[in-house]
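Dear Dr. H.,

I hope your travels went smoothly. While you were away I took the liberty of generating a structure for the chain from your last submission, since the lab meeting agenda had it listed for discussion. I wanted you to have the full record in hand beforehand rather than looking at slides cold. The sequence, exactly as received, is reproduced here:
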Amino acid sequence: MLHGLPRITNDIDFFDNPSKENVEKIKTALIEIFNDESINDIKPTDIEEYSVVRYVTPDGFYLDFIGKVGEMFQFSDIKKGIEWIEIENIKVPVCNVETLLELKEKSLRPIDQQDVIFLKEKLKRKRK
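The corresponding predicted structure, in token form, is as follows:
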């Protein structure tokens, strides 16, 4: 949605540095925001070990924490493709269009293939 494709979604994907120290920072922030003891179930090695670590907020919204996408994309790869946007005076890192396109092109999900079409068009307009 931040790149201009309006779509209702039930989750937000966060590409994260999977280090144990960073996972602890994430947990601390989540506890501060949601005051939910189940956050303590997230182990320091989970983001490094699993493709996706999902936390469901008390109101049912999904937060997906991702340290890698298969063997093709590690956090360090994603980090190279970050651009910063401002939302209500707060700078937020997001995947740039090129990186997002790379991620989506490998997916077989129909929704991701729709995104690929949109992102390719956006890149064409950007390059003109």
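Two observations you may find useful: The beta strands are 11-15, 53-56, 62-66, 68-69, 73-74, 82-87, 90-95. Residues 11-127 form one domain.

With kind regards,
E. W.
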